[in-house]
Design a protein that fits this description.
Layout: H1 2-26, H2 31-58, H3 61-64, H4 70-73, H5 79-86, H6 90-101, H7 109-119, H8 122-141, H9 148-162
Helix pairs in contact: 1-2, 2-8, 5-8, 8-9
């Protein structure tokens, strides 16, 4: 889980953080406000990536604009898989070992993967963790006056965790 967080913070989250931080720098905001914008973007980026990983097992091709199951087929260990492995269910661990570690994937395995992740609560746990990060992002917005931009950023944050594509 720690390694997963390092990867998404160094990928998606840093992109979001940089975009938000540069806005504060261009506006010549105080350093504490620039830092709040950076932290907002970082938390939003983490949340976004977690939702993306969740949607890879629950979304639709039409909604995502990419094939669902790509992470599974590419043998990526994303947060839903990490949570599933933490349950220490022997049967499920053998499945994950065969399909992801050894790469021996058969027809129907993606459907089995989706069922395992839903049944063991890993998908719901991932969704809740994404909401936690979205709330952390919104907490940073409280450091700014309530105005149209603040409301817009709050709505963007809500969209990230409620999107279905």
């Amino acid at each position: 889980e720690e390694q997963y967080m390092q990867v998404i913070k160094g990928k998606t989250a840093i992109l979001f953080a940089s975009a938000c931080e540069v806005g504060g720098l261009i506006a010549e905001e105080q350093s504490n406000k620039v830092e709040a914008l950076r932290l907002y973007g970082e938390a939003l980026g983490v949340s976004f990536q977690m939702v993306d990983d969740f949607l890879d097992y629950t979304g639709t091709k039409t909604g995502l604009g990419k094939d669902i199951g790509d992470d599974f087929r590419e043998k990526k260990i994303t947060l839903p898989i990490i949570y599933s492995l933490q349950t220490q269910n022997q049967i499920n661990q053998k499945f994950w070992s065969r399909t992801l570690e050894k790469g021996n994937q058969e027809i129907g395995d993606f459907e089995t993967a989706k069922k395992i992740l839903a049944d063991d609560g890993s998908l719901e746990r991932t969704r809740l963790e994404a909401i936690h990060w979205a709330n952390a992002a919104k907490k940073q917005l409280k450091k700014f006056p309530h105005n149209k931009l603040n409301v817009l950023l709050s709505r963007v944050t809500d969209y990230v965790v409620t999107r279905i594509s």
